[in-house]
Amino acid sequence: MEAQLSRSAQRVQDALTALGLSCRVEERSESTRSAEEAAQVVGCDVGQIVKSLLFRGTVSGNPLFVLASGRNRVAEARLAEIAGEPIAKANAAFVREKTGFAIGGVAPLGHPEKLPTVIDEDLLQYQELWAAAGTPAALFRLTPQELSVITDGQIAAIRESA
Ligand code: 5CA
What we know:
With 162 residues, the protein is of the alpha/beta class.
């Protein structure tokens, strides 16, 4: 018997199932709060961890959801070009309001409303990815194609060059 998922993780599992995906949410005993921790716990490259980040247009106040490779720093100037306005990182309350999850466990799906989404093109080079699933210890494995289907995101080059 698998242990019962916590409520937020179950919400992600239900959203995956509703989309017809076979992905299984796993809740671990160790923290997967950061991309580095998550990569250690599942034993993958940090680049395979999907960071789910929320930004906000400074003019419109609209959310912009960004799925970035755990290896990359996001170029906010590129996001501003895509958004057509300056953007800033959302605060914790806006993250909670728009995604339904607390920072450290924000999943790419299961949100109360559909969010305009940008996907880091560097995620497409991997055969499998891992994303947060609602809590700082919950994850699921997926392919870049599944990430694209789940979020209907726009694929773009958003890596900050070193
Ligand atoms: N569970 C892990 C691995 S999937 C995870 O959720 N990683 S994450 O990168 O998607 O989420 C953590 C991110 O939240 C950090 O990279 C950071 O960009 C963001 N964050 C952390 N603190 C704050 C804060 N106070 N306000 C806004 N964003 C924050």
